[in-house]
Amino acid sequence: MGGYHLQAPGYPAFPLNARQLFFLISNGHVDFPAEDETDIDDKNKRDGLARLLTVAQILIFLIKSVVRASQHLAITSLELTTLAFIFAMILASWFWKDKPQDVNKPFVLKSKASISEILTSAGVIFNEEYIYTPLDFLSNEEWFINMAWTRGRKFLRQATLNLLWKEKDPSRPVKKIRSDIVPSLSLPLMIICECLVIAYSAIFLAGWNIAFPTPVEGLLWRITTSIMLGFGFLGGWLFFFVDVGVVRKQQRNAASNSALRTMGQGAVGWLVPRNVLSQVNERGPGGAGWEDVYFERIPKVPRPLLVVAATMSVVYFWTRLFVLLEDFVSLRSLPDSAYTTVAWTRNLPHS
Asked: Which residues does 71 contact at the CB level (< 8 Å), separation at least 6?
């Protein structure tokens, strides 16, 4: 997530991803980093005790919820939502278990070559108009949904004149890599993610028979949570169809117009479409630059699929909003057993 920054002469330092770092090292623009695992771990501000306490709190809440259900005590919708968030947090914590937390000062790699010289060595004309950093062309292939979301963010900023949706730091190059950049997913990983989304949605559906202040709220909860689970099934398969049947087909058709350049030794390489390089090189400094090229690379999805996807997204937004609001609105009237504490001794073996 940008643990290494490039410092080139006369240019602000900016973060590097793994592919960009490999390119710089392979072409002799920077030296191989001297840091080892202990140096990286030393950047971590989160100690083992804090993580242990967090895990302990999660386990206590999980055990308490299971015991409450076994003793037929009421579980509120807010507790169900908390369980769903815990499920998502456990997944994120697993993937981030080796990621240093709260890193304020990155490792800086200094280059004797200027940014213009680095780009020229890769066959790209230097252009100040880019999305994240001057080395955007060496970034991993982004998931098409992620690219569409980036474009949507820009539209929202323009539509609201930066009043309701404002970028935290609009300066370029960026000072850190965004955490919501999702690379293109492999088919097995897409299936795994689909199963996880369904499991997440099923947690809300587990509140089918919980008590609500009014029958209408209970009915709306069943409808909205069913829609959420249905979105997990239908939405997942829709994205799967669009990704595999449309997007990757376009990418395969465009492969013949792409230039595959191998850097360093072995089979590691990077793919830069010729049409993208030509557009940037023709426009040059002061032209439309990488931002327009980035948006032009968003795959063309058939309009009917876009309408279906947009409709599903709007419906899902309102269902999630209802669930979050109902979590707090339902607190105005809870069943008596919701205030009953767990009788732990009932679950202990005794004669």
From this structure: 342, 343, 346
Tokens at residue 145, please? 């949904």
Q: What is the pLDDT of residue 214?
A: 94
Tell me which H or E stretch contains 108: strand 107-110
Amino acid at 87: F
d(CA 120, CA 6): 17
Tell the residue number behind the tokens 């990418």, with chain if given.
251
Stretches in the chain below the pLDDT threshold 50: 256, 258-290
- Residues forming a β-bridge with 260: 271
Q: What is the pLDDT of residues 173-189, one digit of tens each?
A: 888 887 777 777 777 88
Residues 90-121: b if buried by 16+ CB within 10 A, e if exposed: eeeeeeeeeeeeebeebeebebebebbebbee
Strands 14-15 and 107-110: unpaired
Question: Which candidate, 241, 7, 197, places its Cα nearest to that of 16?
Answer: 7
Give residue 269's pLDDT: 35
- Smallest Cα–Cα separation from 341: which of 68, 59, 69? 68
Predicted TM-score of the model (pTM): 0.72
Q: What is the pLDDT of residues 271-298, one digit of tens each?
A: 344 344 444 444 443 334 445 555 666 6
CB 169 within 8 A of CB 175: yes
**Which residue intervals of the chain are DSSP H helices?**
18-26, 37-41, 48-70, 77-95, 115-121, 144-159, 187-205, 215-230, 236-241, 248-254, 274-283, 289-296, 303-329
DSSP helix/strand/coil, 261: strand
Q: What DSSP element (H or E) covers 99? A: none
Of 260, 281, 23, the C-alpha closest to 135 is: 23
